[in-house]
Amino acid sequence: MALTSTMRAFELDLSDTDRGVYEALSLRVAQHPSETDEHVVARVLAFALSYTEDLAFTQGLASSDEPAIEVRDPTGALRLWIDVGHPDAARLHRASKAAPRVVVFTHKDPTPWLAQLAGQKIHRADQIEAHALDRGQIALLAAAMEKRNRWALSVSGGQLWVTVGNATHEGAVTQLSLPSG
After folding, report:
1. C-alpha of 118 from chain center
2. Tens of pLDDT along 7-53?
3. Which residues pair with 55 in a beta bridge?
4. Which of 30, 45, 98, 131 is deepest in the core (most CB within 10 A)?
């Protein structure tokens, strides 16, 4: 019998002073049976940290040809490709050719990933934005995640505070540079 996705609801109060974004977001996130709680949390944080009006989750892990999150213009053209995790060089190369803006959020140690990318051919590698989310913060949020979640997110100076109930979890969002090929 095939396993089905778990639906999770997130009510987010986003206050991103770095970008001047203040929104109340209501998200329904399908957690693929093979997806870890940490990956779901990273997807939700990537969505919030990148929020624009036309931002949307895709089929994610269910489709290897799509980003985790995207923005398409009214004609259907891909404008923004957001991946979560450690995409390989071939995927980044394809993403950079498919969309004018590519962003990666990693919730794992980025050191081995960056080493793996060194010397690989990646189209416009110097223009790909990469960010490391705080692994300790991700672990705490994953442990607190439920089917229905109400989180308050505050972003300022590259720091991210997420309040869940009475607990606030602080972490850094560190900008990374992809190695040049």
Report:
1. 22
2. 999 999 999 999 999 999 999 999 988 899 999 999 999 999 999 99
3. 71
4. 45
Decide if 86 is inside a domain: yes
Alpha carbons 80 and 22: distance in angstroms, whole number: 20
> What is the distance between the terminal CA atoms of the chain, rounded to a whole angstrom?
44
**Beta pairing partners, 81:** 70, 102
Q: Which two tokens stand for residue 158?
A: 């590259």
Question: Residue 64: which domain range?
Answer: 8-176
CA angle 73, 102, 140 (to 5 degrees): 110
In a domain, 159, yes or no: yes
- Taking the CA of residue 179 as centre, how many other CA atoms within 13 Å lie in the half-sphere pointing to its CB? 15
Q: Report the distance separating Cα 176 and Cα 110, nearest Å.
A: 9
Q: What is the CATH number of the domain that holds 123?
A: 3.10.640.10
Number of domains observed in the structure of the chain: 1
Q: In what order do the strands lie in the sheet with 55-57?
A: 21-31, 6-16, 148-156, 159-164, 167-176, 129-133, 101-106, 78-84, 69-72, 55-57
Amino acid letter, residue 5? S
Percent of the residues in the chain that have a pLDDT greater than 90, as a whole number: 88
